[in-house]
Amino acid sequence: MGSGSVTLELGGKSTRVIADEYPLDKAAARILLGKGVNAGQTCIAPDYVLISRHRQQAFVEAWTKAVSQRYPTLADNPDVTWIVNERHFNRIQALIEDARAKGAQVLQINPAQETIPAGKRIIPMTVITEVSDDMRVMQEEIFGPILPIRAVDSMPEALAYVKDRPRPLALYYFDEDRARAEQVMTETISGGACVNDTVVHLANFNMPFGGSGDSGAGAYHGFWGFSEFSHKKSVQFQSRWFSPGEWSPSPIPPRPTTTWNGQWDSSAANQRGSRPIFSVHSRGSAHPHGSGVPFFSLTAGAAGQLQLRPAAGCNRAAAGFHAAVLPGCSRRFRFPGRTRRS
Question: What are the residue numbers of the active site?
């Protein structure tokens, strides 16, 4: 049975990192774009935030303001998405209660202070601070309107946190310093990434979209989707003038009990001309061309370039055969049978 390629877009905990100088009001509005779509129930929804400890409270305030402006009411607001089903509704509630029970601070943003009627699967946008890695919200993909915020003491600590965890489907980095952003993109691995925004890279069909590691395998969208789901059939039309089968006097590949010697002429290496500086010949009577037959020599040309050519005394069949079975020999000598370099 043959094996085929598999394309999987999975998900994971898509990370947001906010650099110290980035405006928090702008960060909150752009993160809300990704977290608010379908109440966070998308594969690339921003999952949690990494931010410097001294900016955490200011970001919570900016986030609360942005959410309140976008969703001033909840219960009868057609712009508020319900949780997909009862099972998932209960799971998200359990994530919140698990974090609260383990010491986290939980803030649910309900601007009109409404009571959500029973039966309506609406969960207010929930901010969780003072989180720890033993909480479920920091272990599982949330897939809902919960925003954990993890405070760090430095940006290197934030990046180390990202690198130590499974590769996210999306990495969101907020920083107006282009050089720093380029460095973060270079040092981290994720399915995709977006600098200074969230989820919009999914709509760019000029780029492939997919996961890496735990977040998936393969990529699609645009040309990459056509390529990913198409079979690449290899077809070669051979030249009418050349085939290894016509040039070789022995079966391909031969397996003689032959060793090969390379002879280096150090004095010739310092001269330009036709004198060989490295030659290859066979040794051993089992070789089809006999013992001691020269095959190739490496010569320093008049302009200083290295030239690989059949050695004098190497007949046309032998030269053609060895040119065919020794691909790339102008860069590195690789020979059939046992090999000894000298």
Answer: 9, 43
